[in-house]
Amino acid sequence: MIIMLKRQADERQVNNLTSWLKSMGFDIHFSQGASHTIMGLIGDTSRVDIDVIKSLGIVENVQRIQEPYKSANRKFHEEDSIVEVGAGLKIGGGHFQVIAGPCSVESEEQIVLVAKAVKAAGAGLLRGGAFKPRTSPYAFQGLHEEGIRLLLEAKRQSGLPIVTEIMDAHHLKYFEDVDVIQVGARNMQNFELLKELGQLRKPILLKRGLANTIQEWLMSAEYIMAGGNEQVILCERGIRTYETATRNTLDLSAVPVLHKLTHLPVIVDPSHATGIASLVKPMAVAGAACGADGLMIEVHNDPTHARSDGAQSLTPEAFQDVMNAVNAVRPFACR
Ligand code: PEP
Ligand code: MN
User: Collapsing DSSP states into helix, strand and coil, what is residue 177?
Assistant: First the structure.
């Protein structure tokens, strides 16, 4: 971190600032320019509140050299992280996985049928919402713990590990046998929930918030990792922009940007990003082409009668077609 002092900074105040920073464990390197003095802080500045320093009367400007996230930062962990799910399934570091399944778990027949179909098409994990974050309180809220029980039954019958969303840490007791816990867009900055998930030792799929920057997203990953849970997978699911033609705007450039900034695996969800089934294939292919470590795709046996997100859900046949296209483009992915 670099602190530029004002031209005629009061010496006593500069000394106060210096001893305060030293008391926090920093070494300080002073450089005297023609008009300004510059202080270079040497040490881990991730705990420093940059705004407090900026607000000081003697300070002209402050610049971070090092990002405020540490555990998620590629600078301190050059190799790609590989997240292991259950026995042997890997995501990241060249291991590409597709997570597929319905938006909501609706019945045993539905989830078992979809599980078997997506497995046959090449999916590595089964998704299904049991606790649903719906915009309307009158919309289907999910089958709750019964939904998780049905997912576990589908896992038993298909062999696919399961991914499902948590909305409240009080529900953790239902998630003991869940392989990957999803944090949805609406909870990306639910910091108390993130801290609880940091205490676990199981993979967390962290979706990008509806209108969050990449840095805010990485700080949320940092919350989980700071608790000791390093198994975080990031999921780009589109952000809110002024565009209304699609449900969200898929920020695909986030994928290569994240691969530069972090060692964590990054997957793309073209279903929630577009909201339109016919757009899932082109954006899934694009996600694979730009180097994503996997995809999350909503698949339903009867999309028109789905209890949530039917408009963006693929039939098993359409999903197979997407998988074929994704597999064809993967050898050419930019990574
Ligand atoms: C979901 O995956 O079903 C979901 C609700 O996604 P998001 O949090 O990205 O809206
Ligand atoms: Mn959905």
Answer: coil
The count of C-alpha atoms lying within 13 angstroms of the C-alpha of 284, restricted to the half-sphere facing its C-beta, is 32
> Is the residue at 74 inside a domain?
no
CATH code at position 53: 3.30.70.1140
> Would you say the CB of residue 272 lies under 6 angstroms from ligand 1?
yes
Domain count for the chain: 2
Task: Convert the pLDDT of each residue in 122-181 to its tens digit.
Answer: 999 999 999 999 999 999 999 999 999 999 999 999 999 999 999 999 999 999 999 999
Of all protein residues, the one whose alpha carbon is nearest to atom 4 of ligand 1 is 184
Are 137 and 269 in the same domain? yes
**Angle at 240 (CA atoms; ends 239, 241), nearest 5 degrees:** 115
Query: What is the Å distance from ligand 2's center to 13 Cα?
Result: 55
Residue 208, ligand 1, Cβ within 6 A = no
Query: What is the distance between the alpha carbons of residues 81 and 42, in angstroms, rounded to a whole number?
Result: 27
Pair (193, 45) in one structural domain: no
Domain containing residue 214: 83-332
Mean pLDDT on 109-128: 98
Residue of 272, 296, 313 to mutate, ligand 1, most atoms within 8 A of C-beta: 272
Please work out whether the CB of residue 128 comes within 6 Å of at least one atom of ligand 1.
Answer: no
CA 145 vs CA 26, 165, 176, 182: distances in Å: 49, 12, 11, 15
Of all protein residues, whose CA lies closest to atom 9 belonging to ligand 1?
Answer: 185
| Arithmetic mean of pLDDT, 74-102 | 96
CA 243 to centroid of ligand 1, rounded, Å: 19
What is the domain-level CATH number for residue 255? Answer: 3.20.20.70
pTM of the model: 0.93
Same domain? For 119 and 15 the reply is no
Q: For residue 235, which atom of ligand 1 is closest to its CA?
A: 9
* Domain final position from 33, 63, 93: 63
Is residue 89 situated within a structural domain?
A: yes
Coil/strand/helix, residue 174: helix
**pLDDT band per the 50, 70, 90 thresholds, residue 36:** confident
